[in-house]
Write a structure and sequence with these properties.
This protein is of the alpha/beta class. Helix 9 (248-264) crosses helix 10 (268-277). The strands form 2 sheets. Strands 9-8-7-6-5-4-3-10 form an 8-stranded parallel β-sheet, with helices on one face. A two-stranded antiparallel ribbon has the order 1-2. It has helices spanning 29-41, 55-58, 64-73, 102-116, 135-148, 161-174, 192-205, 239-245, 248-264, 268-277, 292-298, 308-317, and strands spanning 3-5, 12-14, 17-19, 46-48, 82-87, 121-126, 151-157, 179-183, 208-209, 286-288. Helix content is 42%, strand content 13%. The protein is built from 12 helices and 10 strands.
């Protein structure tokens, strides 16, 4: 496994990050334990979750994923794992049960620490913007956590470039801990939104990028074909899949990915992940797995090096997505 610096920090993380959204949803506790054990055996030291997982999917109250990871930590070495989680979504009733106010953040982090069975979080991320809370209030709350040692680094997900730059300016003005990591949706088949402004901004600011859905919700694994546009899948109803499944150009792009994968004798997912890892902005794509077998199919991706010609073919095939 390769290890990379997380942006401008000195923290080293594996080139693949294990996403834990499936834990408590499509993977029960026993299976989740096996997936985490297999990830560690493969050299993965970076796990990502969120306090709301898996409520968004399962309809439960949230916190299931963090609880499972916390149970796993009871018999594993916590200090060897770079642990990331997120805050923003609704976790309790009442007007302050969601958002990025100081009140919500300071309660939510204690709840996450308890569920995760740890006294610190390596990377604490804002899950999405909160237009009702001033940035300086949110950033000062995060800075309190960094100074207390409960959080070591801070990041964000799903923020536009302008809001990130504003946040960095606010942090600099008030002497708060800055963002060091971004978690956008980004893949071969979802490029424009990130590449238009965010990528250059992240490179300029030294912000690491750990994209979620790097396989376009499974579309880039090869399970979707022109002949079978709706295979059995836990992500089949996602808006991204809905758009791609009826887009003929998406299947043209899959043909290119498949040809390159065959040339290297690797799964198609390796090509999609290797393309991401070849970009200077990317630290660790986040992969999810429902089984140990699914995880095993993905962990070798950092070992694949694409040629300049192959990268050019992929860029041309996915331009405009």
């Amino acid at each position: 496994m390769q290890y990379r610096r997380l942006g401008r920090t000195g923290l080293k993380v594996s080139a693949i990050c294990l996403g834990a959204m499936n834990f408590g949803w499509s993977a029960d506790q026993e299976t989740s334990f096996k997936i985490m054990d297999a990830a560690v055996d493969a050299g993965i030291n970076f796990f990502d979750t969120a306090d709301v997982y898996s409520r968004w999917i399962s309809g439960n109250i949230g916190g299931e994923s963090e609880l499972i990871i916390g149970e796993w930590f009871k018999t594993r070495d916590r200090d060897n794992i770079v642990l990331a989680t997120k805050v923003r979504g609704r976790m309790w009733a009442g007007p302050n049960g969601e958002g990025l106010s100081r009140t919500h953040i300071l309660r939510a982090v204690e709840d996450s620490l308890r569920r995760l069975n740890t006294d610190y979080i390596d990377l604490y991320q804002l899950h999405a913007p909160d237009p009702e809370t001033p940035l300086d209030e949110t950033l000062s709350a995060l800075d309190i956590l960094v100074r207390q040692g409960k959080v070591r680094y801070i990041g964000y997900s799903n923020y536009p470039a302008w809001q990130t730059v504003k946040a960095q300016w606010v942090s600099d003005k008030y002497g708060c801990a800055p963002f060091v990591c971004s978690q956008p949706s980004y893949s071969l088949l979802h490029r424009d939104e990130f590449e238009r402004e965010q990528e250059a901004m992240c490179l300029d600011q030294g912000i690491a990028v750990i994209p979620y859905s790097p396989l376009a919700a499974g579309f880039l694994t090869g399970k979707y074909t022109r002949e079978n546009r709706s295979p059995e899948s836990t992500r089949g109803s996602s808006s991204l899949i809905t758009r791609l499944a009826e887009n003929d150009r998406a299947y043209d792009a899959l043909d290119v990915v498949s040809e390159i994968a065959l040339a290297h004798n690797v799964p198609m997912a390796h090509v999609a992940l290797a393309w991401l890892l070849a970009r200077p902005s990317i630290s660790s794509p986040i992969i999810g797995a429902r089984t140990v077998e699914q995880l095993a199919e993905l962990t070798g991706a950092p070992d694949l090096t694409l040629s300049d010609a192959e990268i050019l073919r992929l860029n041309e095939a996915t331009e405009g997505f």
